[in-house]
Design goal:
By secondary structure, this protein is an alpha/beta fold. It has three domains: 270 residues, Rossmann fold (3-Layer(aba) Sandwich), CATH 3.40.50.620; 129 residues, Isoleucyl-tRNA Synthetase, Domain 1, CATH 1.10.730; 47 residues. It contains 15 helices and 16 strands. It has a five-stranded parallel sheet, sandwiched between helices. It is globular. The mean pLDDT is 91. It binds zinc ion. The site of zinc ion (ZN) has 4 residues, from helix 7.
């Protein structure tokens, strides 16, 4: 498999540290609020990457952190701790807030058919590992103690400048005015490994004892401590949003490599953002949608996953309701196809002609080449639809789809279990139209709509809970 490495800025062949195994670390959520569908895109791509790696025969250990302490409002150590701020707003303890949003996060990911990581590491469970790492850096002269915090000294680590193509001079102009003043930092890019429970943090709810006194860890150090604990000094693949190229990931590299003198990560993978109305989806912009908002409009989480797959991971994806509806239609088509092909093809499977077999193998090869070439999923999806339109027999198409779905994760096989197919969006829309017509007394037109729905293979049953759609089984 080949992947674009943001560190070298080249597409490289993946060669893991240990033969047959891949260690993959993915930056996780700061659990102080609900995840939105911009986050969903990132975690679906992590999931697809993991599935592709496994598909190549590697045994993947996927580690993901849960940030429940230490992430301040800005990535540059300024403002309040996001967790403490969220707790204040909700009138709950920090621990309650963290557990609540962590649970919601993973349950939302379940609905997007994202596999749970091999290891989920909560920052608060690894305080001693973080202290140990910070102490090592102080001991080696890479970090220094001040009355407010222990800081990493980027001046002592020359490689810091220019990582991911981010020049220090550009970073400094990117940091907001006024943010840099009033601290004991030697250099504006120095970052906290350990905050002391003094001054603005005197009432911080979460705090632990350390060689530098009572306090709590900085955000960046958790990823280094937990990644190296589970995956060793050199991690094969580390992923994150493209915004982390500026501060978080350079900091992870600096503190890890400072401590071990070894390369921290072989391949850095960064995902572009989900956009809406031309702006990055973010709470600060106010254009946030959650998976449940998408569901409330009648779309399924799996159709959202399909939508994510239509843009390459290094290209921003612009979310619109019409692209969502198109994704739902395409997804429904695939799912229906698999169900119907299986229902029709219960007899003996015909042997494929040499021509068709060759064609089918060709599609398989091209699908494999697309996913293994820097996760080119739009290309892979184009192969899917080309095959769908071909003269390959339906049952063979369905088998190929189910096989490829091991990577795409669209859960197409779920439609086969118990034959509980979800009605496609056109059917649901018609059912809603029919319901409105009935309520307004247009019974003849409502009945015509019912016939139309039946032609599409669905039956409407009026229940106390409203109309219910049932698949016509011999359709
Ligand atoms: Zn991280």
């Amino acid at each position: 498999m080949r992947i674009y490495n943001s560190l070298s800025r080249e597409i490289e062949e993946v060669v893991p540290v240990k033969k047959g195994k891949i260690g993959m670390y993915t930056c996780g959520m700061t659990v102080y609020d609900y995840a939105h569908i911009g986050h969903g895109r990132k975690y679906v791509y992590d999931d697809v990457l993991r599935r592709i790696l496994a598909n190549n025969g590697w045994e993947v250990t996927h580690v993901q952190n849960v940030t429940d302490v230490g992430h301040l409002v800005s990535d540059e150590d300024e403002g309040e701790d996001k967790m403490e701020k969220g707790a204040k707003r909700a009138g709950k303890t920090v621990w309650e807030v963290a557990r609540f949003f962590e649970k919601d996060f993973f349950e939302t990911n379940d609905r997007l058919n994202i596999l749970r990581p091999t290891v989920v590491a909560r920052a608060t469970d690894y305080i001693s590992e973080m202290i140990e790492l910070a102490a090592k850096l102080v001991g080696k002269g890479f970090a220094y103690d001040t009355p407010e915090a222990v800081y990493f000294d980027v001046g002592r680590w020359p490689r810091y400048d220019g990582l991911f193509g981010m020049k220090m001079s550009e970073k400094q102009t990117a940091v907001r005015e006024g943010v840099r003043s009033g601290t004991y930092k030697k250099h504006p890019e120095d970052f906290a490994l350990w905050f002391k429970r003094v001054g603005r943090f005197a009432n911080h709810q979460m705090h632990w004892d350390s060689p530098w006194g009572d306090g709590f860890p900085g955000w960046h150090i958790e990823c280094s401590a937990m990644a190296m604990k589970y995956l060793g000094a050199t991690v094969d693949i580390h992923t994150g949003g493209v915004e982390h190229q500026m501060v978080h990931h350079p900091n992870e590299i600096a503190q890890s490599e400072g401590a071990t003198s070894k390369q921290f990560v072989k391949y850095w993978v960064h995902y572009a953002h989900l956009m809406m109305d031309g702006a990055k989806m973010a709470k600060s912009v106010g254009n946030v949608l959650m998976v449940k908002d998408v569901e409330a409009r009648g779309f399924s989480p799996m159709a959202l996953r399909y939508l994510y797959l239509t843009a390459h991971y290094r290209t921003p994806l612009n979310f619109t309701w019409s692209s969502m509806a198109a994704a739902q239609r395409a997804y429904d088509k695939l799912k229906e196809f698999v169900v119907v092909a299986r229902q029709k093809g219960t007899g003996v499977r015909a042997e494929l002609s040499r021509e068709k077999l060759k064609k089918l193998e060709g599609y398989g090869d091209r699908f494999g080449a697309a996913i293994n070439n820097d996760m080119k999923l739009p290309e892979a999806m184009a192969v899917v639809w080309e095959m769908m339109k071909s003269n390959v027999p339906d049952l063979d198409k369905a088998e190929a789809l189910l096989d490829w779905d091991g990577v795409l994760g669209l859960n197409l096989s779920a439609a086969l279990v118990g034959g509980k197919a979800e009605p496609p969006i056109e059917v649901r829309e018609l059912a809603a139209v029919r319901d409105t017509l009935r309520q307004q007394g247009f019974y003849v037109r409502a009945d015509e709509t019912r016939v139309e729905i039946e032609k599409m293979g669905w039956e409407v049953e009026d229940t106390k809970m409203g109309p219910k759609l049932k698949k016509i089984t011999n359709y």
